[in-house]
TrEMBL record:
GO CC terms in record: cytosol; primosome complex
Residues in SF4 helicase domain copies: 33-300
Tagged with keyword Plastid: no
Taxonomic lineage: Bacteria, Pseudomonadati, Pseudomonadota, Gammaproteobacteria, Cardiobacteriales
Protein name in UniProt: Putative replicative DNA helicase
Length: 306
């Protein structure tokens, strides 16, 4: 039994009377606010309608082929939680340094093209004003970024606990990405390693009572099919990921393969697994130059189908 499994044993059984009282209170709150969502808003209207927002204790996988926008979507959700909901966010970036993430955040919030920010092209007055506004939004946001390349799941648990002591309850734990988390026990085969990492991340979500989002790559098999939309079977160590994840979201943008696609600027977010809710596809707008996703106008799907 691992250290984290021992931690999980600290949870005590609860009497049915207490559980019933908590559940009835939840139902009363939901009935009084029928248009609200049960979880923490992602910032995307239609995605929240399908999922009820980010649920505390859930392990959520966002997956896709390179260039689809996994990191952009995850960062946009982090913005919504930290700035919109004012909930603390712990971001562990094993894939990119913190300065790169800051440029991404500033581009998304300011509406200044990411490439311009990367080159330092902010000489005009309009860009400076937009950047100043984005900085004001971010400076007080309860967002902490760790870009250590050598994190194990044990490190993730320990550092998240320390952050919880500093910030209080966490609204989101975001990890980019699954394939770069170091093994606690080197030498295991990949399936065993992913299974242990995913189980540990699920325990982390329960222990912190916070949603955990982890990003994942998708196998090249998806690109060898006529229909390149990824499936659960395309996940690396798919059985382990599918078993432990509460929600699996796949990102697919047809324009990555076909620049003349009629759905240019549109992303399909396929809810391929949702333990306690429906599966299906949500369409979002994607502004590549700002690394920003957004809601589509109401009725877009019907109009497109016509």
């Amino acid at each position: 039994m691992t250290e984290h499994e021992n931690d999980y044993d600290d949870y005590r059984q609860r009497e049915i009377k207490r559980l019933l009282a908590d559940t009835i209170f939840y139902l009363q709150e939901a009935s009084e606010h029928p248009d609200s969502i049960a979880g923490i808003p992602t910032g995307f209207r239609d995605l929240d309608r399908m999922t009820g927002g980010l649920q505390r204790g859930d392990l959520i996988v966002i997956a896709g082929r390179p260039g689809m926008g996994k990191t952009a979507l995850a960062m946009n959700i982090a913005e919504a939680v930290a700035i919109g909901a004012r909930e603390a966010v712990a971001l562990f970036s094993l894939a990119q340094p913190d300065r790169v993430l800051m440029l991404r955040l500033l581009s998304s919030l300011s509406g200044i093209a990411h490439d311009r920010l990367r080159k330092g092209d902010i000489t005009d007055e309009g860009a400076r004003e937009k950047l100043a506004l984005a900085v004001r939004q971010l400076v007080e946001a309860p967002l902490d970024i760790n870009d250590d390349l050598n994190l194990t799941v044990t490190d993730l648990h320990a550092q998240t606990r320390r952050l919880q002591e500093k910030r209080g309850a966490l609204g989101l734990i975001l990890i980019d990405d699954l394939q770069m988390i170091e093994q606690d026990n080197p030498g295991n085969n990949r399936m065993t390693t992913v299974d242990r990492i995913m189980r540990s991340l699920k325990l982390l979500a329960r222990e912190m009572y916070a949603p955990v989002i982890v990003l994942s790559q998708v196998s090249q098999r998806a690109e060898q099919r006529a229909n390149k939309r990824p499936l659960l079977a395309d996940l690396p160590a798919a059985g382990a990921i599918e078993q432990h994840a509460d929600v699996v979201l796949f990102i697919y943008r047809s324009e990555v393969y076909d620049p003349d696609s009629p759905e240019r600027g549109i992303a399909d977010i396929n809810i391929a697994k949702q333990r306690n809710g429906p599966i299906g596809t949500v369409k979002l707008a994607f502004q590549a130059e700002y690394l920003r996703f957004g809601d589509l106008a109401s009725g877009y799907d019907e109009a497109f189908d016509d």
